[in-house]
Design goal:
53% helix; globular; 11 helices; five-stranded mixed beta sheet
């Protein structure tokens, strides 16, 4: 891997490397399917927290693996990250900035981060004229709709507009934003996370995350997600 400032061009491809399945599942949306929960969380931990940590010392800044372990443990009372999270989503700009700060500036990639970025670099070429893209990571397919909803929200302005309209009308938006912040999402990502949870989760799964039974889960969110998933399925790779 050479130390160069990167930009990214999409290239089609499906393959398996180091027990990671890599595939372009919709135009500009790339799936990384991992073998187990530890494998995915230990790979994505710094990239994802750089993107959306609620800890302002971590978000958008350089930090070591030890830094995130210590700070996460201080807040939780124990280091439970590898069992707390199962799906990940990252924007193109975040991928680029993470590479430039962590690898180019600091020369600091873990072995797993090197493997992840080797796949990105070898299968998503780096050019300045390329359109936007999104990366999602899962180890179980039960998480794929949640992560896809993030990709649609960030890549499709019509989807984002409709979801924001639903959020404005949502009776419990204030309470749900507070809940999302409590479970460690950054303030900037609260509405994106709200639409993802409300559009792709059932009551039981949300209750397990301490989502109040008093809070309505409007069917309109799921209907909107399904509508745009069909639209994206009709787009050609």
């Amino acid at each position: 891997m050479s130390k160069k400032v990167i930009d990214i061009e999409i290239v089609k491809g499906v393959f398996v490397k180091d027990n990671i399945i890599f595939k372009e599942i919709f135009p500009s949306i790339f799936l990384f399917k991992f073998s187990n929960q530890y494998h995915i969380t230990s790979t994505f931990i710094r990239l994802q927290e750089f993107y959306e940590s609620s800890d302002q010392i971590i978000k958008d800044n350089y930090f070591t693996l030890e830094d995130i372990i210590d700070r996460y443990s201080d807040k939780k009372g124990n280091f439970t990250y590898f069992s707390d999270w199962s799906g990940f989503n990252v924007s193109r700009n975040t991928v680029k900035r993470f590479y430039e700060i962590f690898f180019i500036e600091h020369g600091d990639f873990t072995k797993k981060e090197r493997i992840l970025f080797d796949i990105i670099i070898n299968n998503i070429s780096f050019r300045k004229d390329v359109k936007d893209f999104y990366i999602i990571g899962i180890y179980t397919y039960r998480d794929i709709n949640h992560e896809l909803s993030h990709a649609f929200y960030n890549l499709d302005s019509d989807y984002e507009k409709e979801m924001k309209s639903l959020i404005r009308k949502y009776q419990y938006k204030k309470e749900v934003r507070q809940w999302l912040y409590k479970i460690k999402y950054s303030k900037e990502q609260l509405d994106d996370e709200m639409q993802a949870y409300l559009s792709t989760s059932n009551r039981n799964s949300l209750t397990n995350l301490e989502f109040s039974n008093k809070w309505e889960i409007p069917e309109e969110f799921n209907q909107c997600y399904k509508k745009y998933k069909k639209i994206w399925k009709n787009k050609k790779l």
